[in-house]
Amino acid sequence: MGKIIVIEGTDSSGKETQTKLLYERIKKIYDKTIKISFPNYDSPACEPVKMYLAGAFGTDATKVNPYPVSTMYAIDR
């Protein structure tokens, strides 16, 4: 049976670096290992997320409704 490992953290906290190191180590042991990362910036479904991150819906996070934003991230999944 497969396993899922989730790595979460704030921006610039080293998630990508740690994910890469962990993936490479596990891949040596189990060659069927895959890595999935979100948001998937190459996906058309990610366009609203990129707009949000660029400030298209406002630059003050306290004034941006979190419900539509969370939906944007969910669609990218």
Summary, kept brief:
By secondary structure, this protein is mainly alpha-helical.
Task: Describe the protein's architecture and organization.
This protein is mainly α. It folds into 2 domains: 1-37; 39-77, no CATH class. It is 42% helix and 0% strand. The radius of gyration is 15 Å and the shape is elongated. The mean pLDDT is 89.
Rounded radius of gyration (Å): 15 Å
Shape: elongated
Q: Find the count of extended strands (DSSP E, 2+ residues).
A: 0
Q: In terms of per-residue confidence, which ranges show pLDDT below 50 for 5 or more consecutive residues?
A: none
| Class by SSE composition | mainly alpha
Mean pLDDT: 89
Instruction: Give the topology string: H per helix, E per strand.
Output: HHH
Strand content: under 5%
Largest β sheet strand count, sense and barrel closure: none
Query: What is the first-to-last residue Cα distance?
Result: 22 Å
Domains (count): 2
Roughly how much helix do the residues carry, as a percent range? Answer: 40-55%
Number of helices: 3
